[in-house]
Amino acid sequence: MKDKPIIVQSDGSILLEVQSPEYENARDAVLPFAELVKSPEYVHTYRITHLSIWNAAALGITYEDVAGSLREYSRYEIPAGVLLRIRDAFERWDAVRLVKHDVKTLRIEVKSRELFDQIVSRPGIREAVIDLMPPLSFTIDAGMRGRFKHMLIKSGFPVHDLVGYDQGDSLDVDLRANTLSGQQFRLRQYQKEASGHFWAGGSITGGQGIVVLPCGAGKTIVGISVMAQAKTQTLILCTNVSAVRQWITELLDKTTLKPEDIGEYTGSKKEIRPVTVTTYQMLTFRKDKQGPFEHMKLMRARNWGLLIYDEVHVVPAPVFRATTEIQAKRRLGLTATLIREDGLEEDAFSLVGPKCYDVPWKELEQKGFIAEAHCYEIRLPLPPEKEREYALAGDRAQFRIASENTYKDRVMKDIIHRHVNEPVLVIGQYVSQLKRISDTLSAPLITGATPNSKRDVLYDAFRKGEIPVLVVSKVANFAIDLPDASVAIQVSGTFGSRQEEAQRLGRILRPKERISTFYSLVSRQTSEEEFAHKRQIFLAEQGYKYTIEEWSGNDLNP
Q1: Helices 395-403 and 527-541, interaxial angle, to 10°?
Q2: Which position has the higher pLDDT, 44 or 558?
Q3: At residue 158, does pLDDT exceed 60?
Q4: How many CA atoms lie within 13 A of 377 on its CB side?
Q5: pLDDT score, position 78
């Protein structure tokens, strides 16, 4: 018993001993049904939740599989309450099924009379019932598919969707054997697994889901692989215009698609083609708060067979609402973290799909697929003239005063001196601060106001080594491919956002010869230090070395 590597606790958490000979087998056994919460050096912590069990159930895993895995690797007896909650989660997953009835209607099949009565009497569903079909079924309009799923998950019952998908208009697309530059191109094993899990042989059990991979691990390639399997017209939704153009570049480089097959739908171009790439900002644009979303019609502009949500963890709520109306399309979400600061993980589950693939960051680092990274928090005092202003300010103003600490400019120079001849990204929240830093370092600055054409020129110059230091606002948090960046200096952030920390670290995780280094500059004994602690926990939990240093005014002192 002592050699068994996991301990299951009564709250549903699982402690996994990393140095056990059975570590890898136990890790592979629990990953399909438990969420990785912490992964420091010696003991990893996983958590069993209703959502993690529903993700497992969607992949065909059973209660017996989960209980068997826990018993096989658990050092002590599993708490009865944990097994009871696991069984309850599995029973909820398949308690409501959604199947095709005819061309215009869907049939809901419910497993118990009590739940059936509860559902059909619920406002919003009661009015949508077309026919009651004894003993425990009823029909709804096919257009209610997404809204019904959304309402049910909010009541604690995920709908087992077995309706299937419209194929969409066909598209002849295959993966290249060699890129345009002549380099051999093939999928990594985990990329094959991720796309295979989503596609599920083209059956109704696949076709909706979220692939979770670290930044730098090639999520775009997974999307491209799914497109080659689906061979259908595809709409790709991205976070910004630079990401749109990177997708287009990757599609041309690694698939048989031609330029005339791919459309860019952004502020500067409005091309709708068999593969169309746009941004969430375009879809949610409206002239005033009460006006219509003028470009949301793009979701139905063609007979799409596949929608790809890049960085699915930042999908705006209006896009989720639009997604409720297009449940007949296959939907692939790509992300480095399922954490949503707005708590809408259940919306992503019900409207885009369950998590269908996940690999721990450190596992890919150890295999050389993403860069090794060391993380540092540099603490420094406020300037004396700011101490009284800080003490008298409100909470939000205090955070900004701490974030814009002018001593950070001097620390940055120390850090850049540490990393001579390495490409450096300086990332921050406040434009006024970034403008000051840009002037101090004589480095170019990219903010939300920077035209996309200029952004692309600056990113390209940074990639080529023509610009050694680039200052960027939060517009660079997502989907920017800067493969040679090895140093990131975070001068300010968004109130301890774990999601943001994952994305900013991801800017320097592309595989490379040298170790990447991530610095966060934090004003000591301020609210910024409190929020930094949240981010520190996230990085430490992912298994990264995290060192705190003090700045004395002259140099950095570990």
Answers
A1: 70
A2: 44
A3: yes
A4: 23
A5: 96
Is pLDDT above 60 for 511?
A: no
Whether residue 123 sits in one domain with residue 19: no
- Rounded to two decimals, the pTM is 0.76
Asked if the structure places residue 461 within a domain, the reply is: yes
19 and 128 housed in the same domain: no
CA 308 to chain centre: 13
Is the separation of the CB atoms in 265 and 245 below 8 Å?
A: no
Give the bridge partners for 184, in sequence order: 178
- How far is residue 173 from each of residues 203, 236, 255, measured CA to CA in Å? 20, 15, 7
CB atoms within 10 A of CB 271: 13
Does residue 137 sit in the same domain as residue 71?
no
Distance (Å, rounded) from C-alpha 549 to C-alpha 3?
38
Q: How many CA atoms lie within 13 A of 58 on its CB side?
A: 27
- Torsion angle defined by CA atoms of residues 167, 54, 210 and 326, in that order, rounded to the nearest 10 degrees: 40
- Note the pLDDT of residue 557: 44
Q: How many CA atoms lie within 13 A of 338 on its CB side?
A: 26
What are the helix (H) ranges across 103-230? Answer: 113-120, 145-154, 189-199, 219-230
Domain count, the chain: 4
Other Cβ atoms within 10 Å of 47 Cβ, number: 16
**Which of 95-99, 146-150, 238-242, 246-250 has the least mean pLDDT?**
238-242
Residue that terminates a domain, selected from 74, 93, 112: 93
Phi-psi sector, 543: left (phi>0), alpha (psi -120 to 50), beta: left
Residue pair 31/3 in contact by the 8 Å Cβ criterion: no
Is position 170 within any domain?
Answer: no
Spatial separation of the C-alpha atoms in residues 181 and 174, rounded to whole Å: 17
Determine whether 356 is exposed, middle or buried from the number of CB atoms within 10 Å of its CB (0-12, 13-18, 19+): buried
On whether residue 36 sits in a domain, the answer given is: yes
CA distance 4 to 20: 8
Structural domain that includes position 546: 366-557
